[in-house]
Amino acid sequence: MIGSGLERYDLIMQTFLPFPDFAASAAVLDGPRLGKQRVETLQILRALTVPDYGWQRHPAVRMWMGHVPALVRYGLAMTDEWLARGHADATRGSILEFAPEAESAMPMPPPWLGDEDFHRAHRSNLVQKDPVFYGPRFPGTADALPYIWPEPSAELVPAEVTGPRLWLARAQGGQGEKPDTAVVSLPALTPAGVPVRGKKARQLDALLNEANDGDPVALPLDGGLRFATGTLGPITGTADTLARTLVLSGEIRRTDFDYPALLQDPRLFFAVPLPAALRGGTRARSIHR
Questions:
Q1: Which sequence spans correspond to the domains of the chain?
Q2: Residue 1 binned pLDDT confidence (cut-offs 50, 70, 90)
Q3: Which InterPro entries match (predicted)?
Q4: Residue 10, helix vs strand vs coil
């Protein structure tokens, strides 16, 4: 475990655990902080599972490496407490998608859960953040203890798909010229005329160089509850925007995917493992009604 020197990270992201019990930790948090835990849990889950999402070096992400189901259980405790206080919530389903089994039973906890020094540090920092609210809840807590950031036993960083894959296209360029076609387009240049860099450049490279004509592709419908499926066409476009036509012929549901949580990837063009419904001659449902 590591302590002082990383406190600046708390300004960005944290999963508060003043107690080893997730529900007890949720119950003691103030309203704004409790609400924020739902969002930050979802952000950490995506960092742990979605390729190229980022944040893998953040200590609040690293401490949960190898323990996605336990983090889901933590997130559910936060959302359930939030709901019990009468608030609306739009995160529970997304959190649960990463490990549905965590809803019915406590998964294997991370080894640092129950370490009293770890939990004492969280109580101390909560008191420091809001002495009026947390002082009476944690009497006798030492002041200004540094956070303890557990290191993972193994470096587990999500990798891009290497086997049979299905391309997901969110960057729609509108309908194609023919029926049952659509266009996926990505910018090659910024508004200032400079070539795109970073994640945008990697997505453009995937569209142009990794994806091939005839590769299977899916286009989200109804907010990602179902997907139009088909194949990728040749590269088209202009100097500042490059595109491929999608020839659509079928449809699958979100539940047809092996691990639907990967569909929470925010990228505009990316790959996921090819669903069983599209493998080995198994045909997707016709897109026609």
A1: 7-134, 165-286
A2: very low
A3: Pyr-dimer_DNA_glycosylase
A4: helix
